[in-house]
């Protein structure tokens, strides 16, 4: 194992074991290196790597701290990785989203508040019947994010947020080339919203599946 990898593993073990907890300040570099049997250079590289993926927070002049380890913070790294996808893997990302998002939508049907439903309705009303593709995609992202956040599962919400990147291009492309894609998307949004208002988890799950599968099916036919 490379010395930097070993250093990362040792710091990880301290966090997983509870020796370091969210918000804790790490010991001074010289002390921590001695305690872990590491060189200061390898420790420094490990800290730099762990700060990039939001495990550690290096504060100049103050020290290095364990972050909150909140799922949304940690899964920001997923969004970064997803941005490097190749065009031929978009279908794989959509397939994962088709598994996760309907489940989150079904969960939201039992938890979403009337105020949240009213906000989603107002969002769709403001968009109108003939929005631009760009406005529709922006609304689509916020619409689904609002629903998934209502599922009550922060990990699921963060995962789906991270997976939305590559599917955005697919939705834009679809809106520019497929007849009635905008109208179909709006109708599917309304159907999902109606199922949520009825507190019908299975109908909400089904409409969310149809909504994602229609993009996936179209994209599969064009690649």
Description:
InterPro entries: GntR_C, TF_FadR/GntR_C, Tscrpt_reg_HTH_GntR, WH-like_DNA-bd_sf, WH_DNA-bd_sf. Keywords: DNA-binding, Pyruvate, Transcription, Transcription regulation. The chain is built from eleven helices and two strands; from the N terminus they run H-H-H-E-E-H-H-H-H-H-H-H-H. With 223 residues, the protein is mostly helical. Strands 1-2 form a two-stranded antiparallel sheet. The longest helix has 24 residues. It is elongated. The two termini are 41 Å apart.
Topology:
Elements: H1 3-17, H2 29-36, H3 40-52, E1 56-59, E2 63-66, H4 71-74, H5 76-82, H6 90-109, H7 114-127, H8 133-149, H9 154-177, H10 181-197, H11 201-222
InterPro entries: GntR_C (IPR011711), TF_FadR/GntR_C (IPR008920), Tscrpt_reg_HTH_GntR (IPR000524), WH-like_DNA-bd_sf (IPR036388), WH_DNA-bd_sf (IPR036390)
Keywords: DNA-binding, Pyruvate, Transcription, Transcription regulation
Domain HTH gntR-type: 1-69
Which structural category do the helix and sheet elements fall into? Answer: mainly alpha
Strand % is under 5%
Q: Please write the string of helix (H) and strand (E) elements.
A: HHHEEHHHHHHHH
Oligomeric description of these chains: single chain
Q: In percent, how helical is the residue content?
A: over 70%
Low-pLDDT runs of 5+ residues are none
Average pLDDT rating: 88
Summary keywords:
pyruvate; 223 residues; single chain; WH-like_DNA-bd_sf; two-stranded antiparallel sheet; mainly alpha
């Amino acid at each position: 194992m490379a010395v930097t990898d070993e250093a990362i593993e040792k710091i990880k073990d301290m966090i997983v074991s509870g020796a370091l907890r969210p918000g804790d300040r790490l010991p001074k570099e010289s002390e921590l290196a001695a305690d872990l049997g590491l060189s200061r250079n390898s420790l420094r590289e490990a800290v730099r790597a762990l700060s990039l993926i939001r495990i550690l927070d290096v504060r100049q002049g103050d020290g290095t701290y364990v972050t909150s380890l909140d799922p949304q913070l940690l899964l920001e790294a997923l969004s970064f990785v997803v941005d490097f996808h190749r065009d031929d893997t978009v279908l794989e990302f959509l397939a994962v989203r088709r598994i996760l998002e309907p489940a989150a939508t079904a969960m939201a049907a039992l938890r979403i508040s009337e105020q949240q439903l009213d906000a989603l309705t107002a969002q769709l009303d403001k968009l109108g019947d003939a929005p631009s593709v760009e406005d529709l995609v922006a609304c689509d992202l916020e619409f689904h994010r609002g629903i998934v956040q209502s599922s009550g599962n922060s990990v699921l919400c963060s995962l789906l947020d991270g997976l939305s990147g590559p599917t955005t291009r697919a939705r834009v492309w679809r809106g520019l080339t497929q007849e009635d894609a905008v109208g179909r998307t709006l109708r599917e949004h309304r159907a999902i919203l109606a199922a949520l208002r009825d507190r019908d988890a299975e109908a909400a799950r089904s409409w969310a599946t149809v909504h994602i599968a229609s993009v996936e099916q179209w994209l599969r036919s064009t690649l």
